[in-house]
Amino acid sequence: MIPKGKRKTMRILAIESSCDESAAAVLDADRGLLAHELFSQIDLHRIYGGVVPELASRDHVQRLLPLVEAALARARTSAADIDGIAYTAGPGLIGALLCGAALARSLAYAWGVPSIGVHHLEGHLLAPLLEPDPPPFPHLALLVSGGHTMLIEARAIGAYTLLGETRDDAAGEAFDKSAKLLGLPYPGGPELAKLAVTGRAGQYDFPRPMVDRPGLEFSFSGLKTKVLHAVRAFPDAQDAAQLQRARADVAYELQEAVVDTLLIKALRALEQTGRDALVVAGGVGANLRLRERLNAEAARRGLRVYYPRLEFCTDNAAMIAVAGLARLQAGERDGPAIAARARWPLDTLRPLAAG
User: Fold this and answer.
1) Residue 278: exposed, middle, or buried by beta-carbon count in 10 A (0-12, 13-18, 19+)?
2) Is the pTM of this model over 0.85?
3) Residues 226, 328: one domain?
4) Residues 275 and 334 in one domain
5) ∠ at Cα 120 (255, 107), nearest 5°?
6) Residue 166's domain spans which residues?
7) Model pLDDT for residues 199-246, shown as the tens digit of each residue
8) Could you tell me if 270 and 161 lie in one domain?
9) What are the CA-CA distances from residue 43 to residues 28, 39, 51, 104, 114 (Å)?
C-alpha cells in the first residue's frame, strides 16, 4: 500500500508491450486516466503480412521509454508522483514482453516503488471499467481477438471461470487469414470489415460453426477453408469490377457467419449463467457489425452490453493500468525476479474479492 504521508490516492504508470503495440499510460485512483500513449508497428510488419517477433522486440526497445516520458508529461506527473508501475507480463511474444518488463522493473527500482506484472487478457476484460458507465460484477465476458475467443464468467476482479473457447482459430485470426486470401493488406480484420460493407447477402452460403450442438465452444478454421474455396472459384476471366464484387460478397458472408456464431454462443452463455450483463472485449470487439447485432439483441431481450471505447479494444496501456492499479491497491507486489510468460492461463490468477 502507499506509505503514509506520501499521497492519499494511488497514481501508477503502466506499460504494454505484449505484441506489436508499444504503449504507456498514467492512471490515478481518484482522477482516472490522466494520459495514454501508443505507437503501433503496423507499418513495420505490413510488408511481411504479419508480426515478426524479433522486429517487434527491437522496436519496443526504441519506443517504450519515449512513450513513458510522453505519458508522464501529458499527465503532468513526475517520477516522485508515481506510486507503482504495472506492465504486461504475459501472455504474448516473450521477447516483446521482456522489453516492457525490464523497463518497468528498472524504473520501479530506480524510483523506489512497487511493480506488478499484469495478465494481458485481464487487462482486456477490465478495459470497460475506464468508461463512464462501467459494468457491474458479476457479468459474462466475450473476449474476442486475433489470438483468443473465449466466454468467461467474471464474478469479481481476478475471479474468472472459462465457459468456452475456440478449438482452433480465434475469430480475429479467421478474419485476418481470410483477408489475406482475399488480397487485403495487413492487418486484415479491419480491412475485411470495410470491404464487407459493400457486399451482398445471399451470394455465398457459409456455416455457423458448432451452433447446432450444445456447449459454448467455438471453431472458426472451417470458415477460413470456405473462403479459400470461394476465392479459388473466382472466374479468371471476370473484369476488375466483377472481382471486387465477388471479394466483397465473400467478406460480407464471412463477417455475418462469425458475428452470428459469436452472438448465438454469447446469448446461450447468458441464458445458462443467468447473467444479464455482457462485456465485449478484445480487438474484434471494435467490429461495428458485431456491436450492431449485439445491441439490437440486448435491447430486445432486456440485456446490458458493455464495451471499451474503440481505441481501447486493441492492445493499450490504459487497460493494463486498470488491472495493475486494482492489484497494487490490494497489496500485490512483484517478487525479486523479472518474470514474463508467453503462456499464462487466465484461471491461475488470484481473485481480489470473493466470487
Assistant:
1) buried
2) yes
3) no
4) no
5) 140
6) 137-307
7) 999 999 999 999 999 999 999 999 999 999 999 999 776 788 899 999
8) yes
9) 32, 11, 10, 26, 35
